[in-house]
Every structure is written in C-alpha cells, then in structure tokens.
Specification:
mainly alpha, 10 helices, 68% helix, membrane, Transport permease protein, ABC2_TM, cell membrane, transmembrane helix
Length: 282
C-alpha cells in the first residue's frame, strides 16, 4: 500500500519473444528426422533400393575398362551415389508430403503459428541428414566390395561437397513440387517412383551416356540426376574415365550451372504448385 492508500501498479511482464524462423526450422528438421526413422517401411525403401542395385550390378558386371584399371562396378558405384542422393530427396519428399497432404497433416500445420518457411527448412534439413547417411553407406560398400578409391586432392572433395549440396537442394525442391501431382496417398509411391526409375536409366547411372539414344540423353539433361552423377564420377573416377561422357569431359562448370538452375527453378515450381490442402478440400 502507498501513503495515499492506493495499491501500487503491478509490474508489466516483458513481451514474450517468439523463436526465429531458422530456429523453428531446425527444430522441425530434428522432428522430421525422428519421424522418418520411425517409419520402417520408408527407411528400408529409401536406403535399400540404391544399395541393393549397387550390390547386384557391381557383382554382375565386374570387368575392367581396358587401359584404365577402373572396373565397371566402380563406375556403377559413382553413379549410384547420385541416385542415392535423389532417392533420399526427390523420392522421399515427393511421397511423404503427398501422404501428409492427403491425411490432413499439412492443413493442420498451416493452422499453427509455425512460419511456413520453417516447414520446408525442416524437410530439407531432414533430407540432408538422410542423404549424408545414404552416401556414407554407399561409400563404405563401394570401398569394401568394389575397390572404389577416395580422392586425395582437396579440389575433388570440394567438388564432391558442392555437387552434393546443390544436388540435394535441387532434388528436394523438385520432390516438393512433385508431391502435388498424386491425387491420394495410395498413388503417391507409384507416381513418384516411376519417373525416378526412368531417370536413373536415362541419366547414365547403369548405362554409359555414350550408348544411349540422343532423345533419351536430351530428356535426362533437363533433370538434376544426370549432372549429379557426372559430378560424382569426376570425383571418384578421375580424368581417365571422362571418356564415358558424351563430350569427353565432365563439364563441371555446366554441372554447377544446371544444378544451380534447378535450385532456382525448383523453388519457383514449389511456389506455383504447392498447396497445404488436399484437392478434396477445395
């Protein structure tokens, strides 16, 4: 009580500061990663598909390219690292987001205070974790079973990092855009997986580009997988195996240009196609 007999005014509590979008996104990335690893079917499919194909193709085709000392299995290993990155990003997000939309999860998230950007930061952050694990497993198998050699030049490792980061980001954005195509969660896996399988054959993962028809090469050149595989082959196979490329060169400047274009183009596709609601919701 004051001398005049009136009560002292209560202290005003400082306004509560909301966490930043980046902080929310990183928290969401942790949650998305935990949720992914709880879905055993998704984990097995995402990790097992490239690994099984690597073991099968690497075991069947065990010859050596004449005058190089590089085996067919090592060429497959380098290409399948690119396929593994796209499996963890494009295929993973294309299916999972379509399922979340169909089940109403996206609609509920849109009604929360979470910034929309944080959702996508969380998705791509989770994909990067999964892709790193995928690449690590493929490298261990390739080193152990097929004699793939790790590069010794720091420049090659720098190339590996930027090809990985641009590739996983562009493929993730393409997967987010692709998630709007399936009409229901039941059709999502088939609709997303089919073009991914076609792209693997068209992008030189299993068949050298020099043996593919021009129209198929032109089709594959539009998408990021071909360029990721080309970049990873430059890292693990060296200059002597550039003979497998159409121009006799890995064209790393063009690889960087196309993958960067997919980061920008994929973002534009997402902005034009992504919806939080299912078609049935109007």
């Amino acid at each position: 009580m004051t001398q005049s007999g009136t009560a002292a005014p209560a202290a005003t509590a400082p306004p509560m500061r909301l966490p930043s979008t980046l902080r929310v996104g990183l928290s969401r990335a942790r949650l998305e990663t935990l949720l992914f690893f709880r879905e055993r079917t998704a984990v097995v499919f995402t990790f097992a598909f490239p690994i099984i194909l690597l073991v099968i193709f690497g075991s069947i085709f065990d010859g050596v390219f004449e005058g190089t000392g590089i085996s067919f299995s090592q060429v497959y290993a380098a290409g399948l690292i690119g396929a593994g990155v796209m499996s963890a990003s494009f295929q993973n997000l294309g299916v999972s987001i379509a399922v979340e939309r169909d089940e109403g999860t996206l609609k509920r998230l849109a009604g929360t205070p979470m910034p929309p950007v944080a959702y996508f930061i969380g998705k791509i952050g989770s994909v990067i974790v999964v892709a790193v694990l995928e690449v690590a497993i493929l490298l261990v198998i390739s080193l152990t079973l097929f004699g793939l050699r790790l590069p010794s030049d720091p420049v090659d490792w720098f190339t590996f990092v930027w090809v990985f980061l641009l590739g996983v980001t562009g493929s993730s954005l393409l997967g987010i855009a692709m998630s709007s195509v399936p009409r229901s969660s039941k059709s999502a896996a088939a609709i997303v997986t089919l073009p991914f399988v076609v792209l693997q054959f068209a992008s030189g993962v299993y068949i050298p580009a020099t043996q593919l028809p021009d129209w198929l090469i032109g089709f594959a050149s539009v998408f990021p997988l071909k360029w990721m595989c080309q970049g990873f082959r430059s890292v693990f196979l060296g200059d002597e195996m550039a003979i497998l490329e159409l121009t006799g060169s890995y064209e790393l400047a063009r690889v960087a240009l196309v993958l960067s274009a997919w980061v920008v183009g994929g973002l534009l596709l997402c902005l034009m196609t992504f919806t939080w609601k299912n078609r049935r919701d109007g």
